[in-house]
Amino acid sequence: MAIPPAESETALIERARNGDRSAYGELVRQQHSGVINVVYRMCGDTQLAEDAAQEAFIQAWLNLPSFRPGSSLRNWLYRIAVNAALDSLRRAPKTPFVAFETLSAPDGQAGPEAALLQKERSRSVQKAISTLPEASRAVLVLREYGGLSYQEISTALDIPLGTVMSRLNYARERLKQILAPEFIDMEIEHV
Amino acid sequence: MSEHIRSWLNAYLDGELQGARLDQVRNHLQNCSECQRQLDQLRGLSGLLRGTAPLDEFLPAERFVANLTLRLPRQPAAPQTRKAGGLGWGWFVPLGLLAAWFFAQLTGRLTSLITSLASLGLLGDGLAWLPTGSARQIAWFGWLLNSLGAWTEWLAPLNQADLFLRGLTGQFFWQAVLGLIYLAWLARWWLGSQNRQAAPVVNG
């Protein structure tokens, strides 16, 4: 069945709740990039993130009848996604992280190797995020990559607002210590 | 002072502050280079986190959806099939109890009010057939008249007060019965909803 392009999220949810797969597929298409980004930042591994995102969307499909109409689908999905990511991490074989000393920032004279520098920076950032405790990581990821407000994070993770703030403070302080200061200073120059 | 402000820098950066706290942090930042430097670092960190792309490409959304569709179970777990009318007959139980309680309350209060007004003579002789008080009540008020003299004319309405309270025991009894019926229905409804939730719970 063809999906009208302007069909609202509410209408799609209602159809999906009644078992309409094409409506659910459209919802997944709309939420895919946000969910995969959150899951990837939680897992730190592309393949693991793909699997966790699939699992998250299956869980969401199964639990759709219990979804409260009128509440935010995105926030609800992010909550499921974070849990799916953590489950995937627990099931996945443990691989030792590369020490950060070996991931220090290349010097600023990389020049033509800008792509390499970018990749190195991405790897460093993801490794740094992966070292955070799960609780703090979830708050940081939902804020920085999910774009949720403190209140939305509080609701999604079912933790008090003060805990959101303290975990976020901890996570950022820890990342500032871990990541090479050059990275942050370079970013400041561009802000 | 600086330490205190520092704990609010993240919330300030994320646009989560408002009112007096927002003014306090803004004013402090204008005069404290150290906190300003901390804020710049946080801003730089945030930009760094958001600006770095994933190391590898993800599956395009279309392929992701196609793969997902193949893995989806045939039906959402425990679809909520409702009969015509939407809410189901179960909702009539609390509504019916509430209506019964409201009716009993209203009837009782109106009866008491009319009885009181009639006994004060405000309704004329048309309601003379209504009871106006017990013998004990009349005796008590007679003793009060003798004891306090002229002051008691101001206390006359008090004599009617117990007309409102006479049915109190009965009211408590019926309210308790209605309450118990309601709680029994609530327990049954909760057990039913637990059984319907066959899908795995999404934990937090």
Shape of chain B: elongated
Distance between the first and last residues' Cα of chain A: 47 Å
State the helical fraction of chain A: 55-70%
Report the uncertain regions of chain B. 79-86, 197-204
Low-confidence stretches of chain A: 96-108
* Number of DSSP-assigned strands of chain B: 0
Query: What proportion of the residues of chain B form beta strands (DSSP E)?
Result: under 5%
Number of strands of chain A: 0
Total helical elements of chain B: 10
The dominant shape of chain A is globular
Oligomer: heterodimer
Gyration radius of chain A (Cα, Å) is 19 Å
Largest sheet of chain B: none
Account of the protein in words:
- The complex is a heterodimer of chains A (191) and B (204).
- In chain A, 70% of the residues lie in helices and 0% in strands.
- Chain A has helices spanning 9-17, 21-43, 46-63, 73-91, 114-130, 134-144, 150-157, 161-178, 181-190.
- In chain A, helix 1 (9-17) crosses helix 2 (21-43), helix 4 (73-91) crosses helix 7 and helix 6 packs across helix 8.
- The termini of chain A are far apart.
- Chain B is an all-alpha fold.
- Chain B contains ten helices and no strands.
- The longest helix of chain B has 29 residues, at 168-196.
- At the A-B interface, helix 2, helix 3, helix 4, helix 5 and helix 6 of A face helix 4 and helix 5 of B.
Keyword list:
heterodimer, A: 191 residues, mainly alpha, B: 204 residues, 10 helices, elongated, disordered C terminus
At a glance:
Chain A is an all-alpha fold. In chain A, 70% of the residues lie in helices and 0% in strands. In chain A, α1 packs across α2, α2 packs across α4 and α6 packs across α8.
